[in-house]
């Protein structure tokens, strides 16, 4: 039999899967996988997250996927896993994202047992910078936890998974239960109404877990965990003073504060982020250098080993599931015969190419990011998938705000080098 020759790629046309070489799988989620891909023209490496349309429709997650796609177009920050391309074919929707090969913080916590204070301090500073940026864009993440923080090859922390992220409203509080229960603020689990302040609570709980390898509020059932978050006082392990400085414990108390107006980062006079920058725990951080990635991380992932679960690659090798392949789209599809949900994906999961497109803000007027517009970023009712209340699992409950959960477990980072920040 003769060799098969692939057709030449039209790089002047719209971005599609043929523009990329497919490499190894590094993550798996509810609707598909995450793979390393290489752009054939630029040779840049990215992470390709792909969503099976039929599974997405079956789990009633179409509106959520579209919302995540739109939110990702609005943001671009050094400590966020940024969107570079978005497109679709007949079977899948594709997100092409910054590649992070350094592992997520859950992976490193499980292997190291606990993370030294100086490492946690550095990561929290980088994540605080990312959260401040998101909040300035009127976005609340709602699912900050070790699983959703990825390291690049140098050890810089990046926030990912905007599956339940939403725009917050200045006019009213949100009431939907969304995120991962163990990291939810009291205002979320207690349905007290919440806004962007909940992200700072989740950051505090994440830092606590990284330091002590346990969370401050726990319970064997969802009801017991909810009660603990709402009622139990914050306690530290007996060894906390030996492991951490007083400034560190003070910062944790500040973030894990039930009153949002008194929470670190949430100063009602508008100085929240400045309060974080001026806190004694961050006295060694040069914030300007930090945001330029000119500070050398105190922990560097070992890039000689895979910093992710290698079993993701075995599924396709063992024919457990159908491998991803380049496929041409059907010409002239019959729109009238399409299911409404499939047509919604076709129309609203729009093409994005960071090298050609200006980033847009989809709320409320589809404006280029940075242009002033209405401050009324109201929440939207989205269909919900059934989920189980597991401490580490993202959950979403249908209410006036929110979006259904996907279970994407993430991939990891790119490569570069850094300098210290003292």
UniProtKB/TrEMBL annotation:
Binding-site positions, ATP: 49
Keywords: ATP-binding, Kinase, Nucleotide-binding, Serine/threonine-protein kinase, Transferase
Keyword field contains Kinase: yes
SUPFAM superfamilies in the record: Protein kinase-like (PK-like)
Compositionally biased residues, Polar residues: 413-422
Record domain AGC-kinase C-terminal: where: 283-364
Residues that span the membrane, as ranges: none
Location of the region described as Disordered in the Swiss-Prot/TrEMBL record: 400-422
GO MF annotation list: ATP binding; G protein-coupled receptor binding; G protein-coupled receptor kinase activity
KW Glycosyltransferase (keyword) present: no
Record-level GO BP terms: G protein-coupled receptor signaling pathway; regulation of signal transduction
Domain Protein kinase span(s) in chain numbering: 20-282
Family: Belongs to the protein kinase superfamily.
Protein name listed in UniProt: Protein kinase domain-containing protein
Organism in which the protein naturally occurs: Amanita thiersii Skay4041
Lineage: Eukaryota, Fungi, Dikarya, Basidiomycota, Agaricomycotina
């Amino acid at each position: 039999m003769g060799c098969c020759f692939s057709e030449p790629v039209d790089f002047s046309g719209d971005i599609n899967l043929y523009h990329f070489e497919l490499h190894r799988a590094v993550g798996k989620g509810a609707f598909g996988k995450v793979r390393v891909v290489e752009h054939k023209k630029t040779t840049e490496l990215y992470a390709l997250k792909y969503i099976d349309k039929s599974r997405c429709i079956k789990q009633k997650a179409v509106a959520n996927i579209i919302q995540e796609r739109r939110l990702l177009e609005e943001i671009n920050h050094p400590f966020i896993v940024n969107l570079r391309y978005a497109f679709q074919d007949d079977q899948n929707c594709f997100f092409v994202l910054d590649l992070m090969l350094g592992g997520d913080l859950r992976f490193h916590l499980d292997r190291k047992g606990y993370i030294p204070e100086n490492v946690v301090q550095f990561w929290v500073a980088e994540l605080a910078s990312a959260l401040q940026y998101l909040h300035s864009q009127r976005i609340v993440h709602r699912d900050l936890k070790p699983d959703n923080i990825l390291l690049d090859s140098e050890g810089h922390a990046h926030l990912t998974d905007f599956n339940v992220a939403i725009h917050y409203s200045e006019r009213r509080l949100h009431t939907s239960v969304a995120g991962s229960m163990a990291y939810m603020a009291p205002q979320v689990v207690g349905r007290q109404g919440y806004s962007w302040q909940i992200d700072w609570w989740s950051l505090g709980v994440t830092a606590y877990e990284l330091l002590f390898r346990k969370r401050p509020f726990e319970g064997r059932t969802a009801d017991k965990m909810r009660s603990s978050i709402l009622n139990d006082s914050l306690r530290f392990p007996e060894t906390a003073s030996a492991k951490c400085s007083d400034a560190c414990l003070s910062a944790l108390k500040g973030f894990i504060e039930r009153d949002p107006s008194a929470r670190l980062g949430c100063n009602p006079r508008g100085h929240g982020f400045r309060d974080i920058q001026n806190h004694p725990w961050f006295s060694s951080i040069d914030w300007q250098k930090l945001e330029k990635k000119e500070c050398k991380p105190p922990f560097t992932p070992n890039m000689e080993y895979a910093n992710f679960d290698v079993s993701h690659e075995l599924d396709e090798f063992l024919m457990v599931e159908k491998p991803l392949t380049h496929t041409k789209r059907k010409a002239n599809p019959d729109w009238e015969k399409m299911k409404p949900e499939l047509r919604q994906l076709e129309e609203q999961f729009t093409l994005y190419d960071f090298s050609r497109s200006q980033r847009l803000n989809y709320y409320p007027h589809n404006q280029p990011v940075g242009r002033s517009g209405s401050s009324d970023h109201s929440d939207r009712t989205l269909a919900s998938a059934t989920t189980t209340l597991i401490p580490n699992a993202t959950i979403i409950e249908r209410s006036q705000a929110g979006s259904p959960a996907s279970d994407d477990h993430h991939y990891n980072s790119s490569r570069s080098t850094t300098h210290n920040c003292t």
